[in-house]
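User: Some background: our group keeps a shared notebook of sequences we're curious about, and every so often someone picks one and asks for a predicted structure to add to the entry. Today it's my turn. The entry only has the sequence so far, pasted here. Could you supply the structure so I can complete it?
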Amino acid sequence: MSAVDQAALGRVLSGALDGAAPIEITSREPLKPAVQRVRLLAAGRARSVIVKRLAPEIARRNQLVATRWLPAAGMERAAPAVLGILTDPDPARAWLVAEDLGAATFAAQPPDAARLQAAIELLARLHTRFAEHALLGEVRLWGGDLGASWLEANLRDATRALSALREPLVPPGGARAALRERLLDRLAALLEQAPRRAEELWACGGPETLLHGDLWLANIVDVRDGAGAGDGGPRIALIDWDHAAVGPPLYDVSTFLLRFPHGERLGLWANYARALGRRAWRLPDEAALERLCASAEHGRIANRLIWPALEIARAADEESRERSWADLEEVSRWLEAAEDVWP
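Assistant: Of course. Here's the predicted structure to add to the notebook entry:
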């Protein structure tokens, strides 16, 4: 961030931290591309915040999650507080300034049984409190839809992007042409199955609700002694609500389950089903659950196929195309493994 950006960050933090002044930035820690932990002194007190570069509409989505949607169901502690959004001279990006909940993600520190159960209960609470909620129209406007139509749309968009890779980009008879045809054949088979999978998702996937949309273990945080920690057991929160949307609970559940070893997944599902309690919908049996998890994974993988295929078509140099072909090869392996849900 430039000196101007630092001054703007100071103004946002001064207002967000009870008007504390002056703000002195003491260090910056890059966490991943476009994300950094900023440590500072506010009126002599050490604090830290997360600053993340995003498209403006995604920054606004995160802000709505923290300030409007979760508070409407009494769940504001399920996400980091958003302290402000900084504008950027580039209209395609903004800077989200959020509460730092610490580095103890489930990816960095595998959870014990108590913390894992707390995360499952948080997920069940999110899904039941927002089932058929009045705000879902607003969520859909700002976050989109991850339901049955999303699956088929991604399959069709991936097919279009791959079908556009023709000569001279893809010489006939080579490894690249074989990869392209293999992916197109798999997508065609999935498109044929899509209506049946959509029908099953409507029947057993659960009522429309607010979804986190990206429930990898790196986005589940055990808030320990840092900001927001409390007494009475672990506090679990979800970070990076960039993909928050409307859809069936099974979308989030499938993302979560598939991050664990095969042998643990059915037990985690049973714990989630118990946590739903009396608000459980018509839950799928084991075979249907496996198909539903695979369907959601197909949609995510198909979405991931679109972008390297488009990049191959528009890349100006062979090095960029090579990286994109490598991405397609990797994603093709994910697609082959997507049906492998249970042991």
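Suggested note for the entry: The CA atoms of residues 1 and 323 lie 28 Å apart. The chain has two domains: 3-98, 113-337.
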